[in-house]
Structure formats: structure tokens, C-alpha cells
Amino acid sequence: MIGDYLGNIALGYLLGAVPYGLIVGYIWLKRDIRESGSGKTGTTNVLRTAGKAAAGIVVICDIAKGTAPALFGRFVLDNDGAAAAGAAAAIVGHVWPVFAGFRGGRGVATGYGGILGLSPVVAAFFPLLLIVPVGVMRYMSLGSVLGTPIAAGAIVAGAALGWQPWAFALYAIFVVVLVEYMHIPNIRRLLAGTEPKMGRGGDSAATG
Questions:
Q1: Helix residue ranges, H only, the chain
Q2: Alpha carbon 208 to chain centroid, angstroms
Q3: Is 10 a domain residue?
Q4: What is the domain count for the chain?
Q5: Mean pLDDT of all residues in the chain?
Q6: Beta-carbon neighbour count of residue 7 at 10 Å?
Q7: Closest by CA position to 142, among listed 106, 186, 179
Q8: Is 207 domain-assigned?
Q9: Helices (DSSP H) in 119-194: which residue ranges?
Q10: Per residue in 156-194, pLDDT tens?
């Protein structure tokens, strides 16, 4: 039992620590993508600095980093707790990647990947939460800040009703805490009216 947890946590962290945004940034721009925009390796900064094609590759890879340990824990180890722990470790690896000087992204796509692997029904409805903040208002950060706790709330409610394991609910709570923490600078800029909209701000020096 403990071996399931430790093994999947290690797998999740190492998968999460692969800096796809950094790799794609070097392929597209021949430089460290963290030097511009938000200074992160996530999809939003890749979109701002390298464009839609690069961002599309990164978002798929970053989602997969969270999905893989979740599915491995559920269907190979047959252990819901280990599945949730591995998915959580993948986010930690994405945010603080050992392969990129512990400077990664904010964990949204990888966190979503974990939800996709643990609770695909909730994951299927998550894009609907982004229609107004992202599709209409063009603020990716606002979509993350608002959509993540709503999705997590659905998972917690499902656990309370006995529809899914409490381990998944604990994972959802962890995702909310970490994602909101990583978005504190964005929240401040949103309140101040200085947050750049989706696809803008990539030419500026990294702001954090």
C-alpha cells in the first residue's frame, strides 16, 4: 500500500517536472520562454510569446502529465488514494520542476489533467466554466481563478454524496489551494485592471 503511494508520487512528480513549455519555447524561439511575459512555462505564457501552435502542443502535454499518474493509480495499481497522490505530485513537479531549476508554470493544465484522470465527468464540464472569463473577457487567469474552485466544488460534492472517493476530493482541494496561491500576482493585477489579456504581453520582460 505505501509502495503504491510512494511509487506513484515519484512517477507523478517526474512526469510533471518535464518542462514542455520550456522545451517548446526553445524550439520555437531559440531562447528561454521564462524571459518574457509572465516568466512561467505554462500554456498562457507560451501562447503570448510563441503563438497558438506552440501553446496547443504545450497544453496537451501538460494535461497528460496530470492524467497519466491518475490513470496509472486507478487502473494499474487499483488504488484511488495513490491515483490522487500521483496527480497531486504531478502538479508539484510542474510548478517546481527539478529539470528546469524549480521554475515552472502555475499548474492549471496539469491540475485539469488530474481531474480528467480521476473524475472525467467533471472534467468534461470544466471548459464551460471558461466561456465568459476566457472566451468573452479574454482573461485566462480569471478563468483559472474562478473555474478551478467550481470544478473542485463539484468533486467534493460528489464525494459527499458517495459518488466518488474522498481521495479525489482531497486532490481537488489541493489543486484549488495551489492554483489560487500561484495566481496571487494575477489576482492583484486583475483587481488593478493591469492584467494582460490572452495572447498579449509576450513581448515584455518577465513580470512573474
A1: 2-16, 20-29, 43-50, 52-71, 80-95, 108-118, 120-125, 140-160, 166-182, 184-192
A2: 16
A3: yes
A4: 1
A5: 90
A6: 17
A7: 186
A8: no
A9: 120-125, 140-160, 166-182, 184-192
A10: 999 999 999 999 999 999 999 999 999 999 889 888 988
